[in-house]
Amino acid sequence: xxxxGSAIIQFPQKDLGLTLSEDKVVKKLVExxxxxxxxxxxxxxxxxxxxNFYPRDATKSEIEIxxxxxxxxxxxxxxxxxxxxxxxxxIPYHIKFKKDLEKVAKLILEAAKITDNKDFAKxxxxxxxxxxxxxxxxxxxYWLSLKPYKINFVIGPIERYDDKLFFTKCSYQSWVGIxxxxxxxxxxxxxxxxxxxxxxxxxxxxxxxxxxxxxIRVDDTLIFSxxxxxxxxxxxxxPNDVNMMEKHGSESxxxxxxxxxKFQDERYPIYQTIFDRSVESPFSVEExxxxxxxNSYLHEISHPLLRYRDSERRLREFFPIFDEIAASTxxxxxxxxxxxxxxxxxxxxxxxxxxYIVLGFSWWISYLKEPSVVHYAQGFAIAINYFVENGSxxxxxxxxxxxxxxxxxxxxxxxxxxxRILAVGTYEDAKNFVDKYxxxxxxxxxxxxxxxxx
Amino acid sequence: xxxxxxKFLLTExxxxxxxxxxxxxxxVERAEVVERIQxxxxxxxxxxxxxxxxxxxAQSLLEARIAELQEVLHGAQIVExxxxxxxxxxxxxxxxxxxxxxxxxRIVGSMEANPADRKISNDSPVGKALLGLKTGETxxxxxxxxxxxIKVLQIN
Lengths: 454, 156
Description:
heterodimer; A: alpha+beta; Fructose-1,6-Bisphosphatase, Chain A, domain 1; 7-stranded mixed sheet; two-stranded antiparallel ribbon; B: alpha/beta; Helix Hairpins; Chitinase A, domain 3; 3 helices
């Protein structure tokens, strides 16, 4: 992995089996992705809760008042500045960053001319247009309707994590990846398992259903640029807009180089540290790695199954906590029936359970480095505290000793409770749950043991 | 001494599928892999020829699968197509409730099983538990940490 700047990470790859023209296309797209980091650096500002999306001197209430008169102030795709008269004005991204975006679009269009895949060429043209005119809807629809293709290219203002003030403004990011056939086959197999059962649905009228339109792929990623380079996610699920998802589906991507680095540097050492020896000894490194990877699939596959139309509005700042941990937990719950159907072995299932716990610690470590991912750590704290409270995990001599039978039962209960909050819970329900279970102390008690990793 | 023939339960459809696979492997893929090996030989030095090693590995996997298919086809025992059966048999398509989820799948012989394609082996815990049950009946099953109550909602 090569760090070429704070907002670009390139992952070296060996033989990707690309044709000459595919190789040329990929090179152009990687160049386009690199340029996006320049735009991202203009948006980011770690010292400000609202990054550079809003003027430094603007208060939250001033922005809210201005947005009542001009809703574009809180559009995900505008920078807010102070006009000459002192009033707040919204400038669309495609105007504010026009010069940078023209360079990016030029490279994308050059790639479109080279590719032999007509659908992909069309998609790249639509994508370039979207960057220049700010109409991202058409581009998203076209991307979601495209048949799975070897080359994966995502670019644009996408994730909202940098806007800690309103969780509204999207930061630019891009990635380029090549489909890893072996892992993609395994991920699609799991997706088919999970979506093949019909779940009892809470608040059916609010449920967003699009099971037939969920796609998953595992990529040998070549580059992360912009926000994703800073957060180093091992997976992503897009689009973020619930209505778009309902109509056109969603696509999850697992980033193999990022996953492998996280596994090697963080998750495997955590696994070796936190568990009692008796838990750890029966599993090989490969089994544990597979358990970790499958946690990533299951999280991404389950995410779209838990979309309820107004959960963000009801739960407000607690929404991301429940949104993330509910997906991870539902995925594990769904795995139970796979064991009964002989689709996975007991050992495979147990490795998935163990790595679910490890993931919690991994997010806590990520939070120590990058506080804006706190909702992931809080979500897993809810789960692990819940397991400790009901005896599914015992703390023995500073080590964790899970009882798999109790843990699976607890996961099923917890999954139902979390989904209930997403589906019909109030702000107070969410707050009470967080107050009761989301303490990060469960992680900090292992801080000394994990100091090499953290 | 007489060799004991292993029996494999298969649906009619499953038998056709395995016969077709056997045909494809022996008539097409076997020749292709031989050609691959010959081409790889032309690259020279077999000791450091990764193309040759990969082709030989592919040939060994192919021959193992052909041998497995031959054994299954030799010992195939066709399961009668279930017609309006009152209880679950091999070949039944069932809708069951497992905890709070509804699952629909077909019970097949172990050689045909493909859970991702909703074909569950009669030897799997769910398959074993369901055989012989009638609509409306429930049964408790458990494998390792997972326990579940299964209720038969429909048998087709």
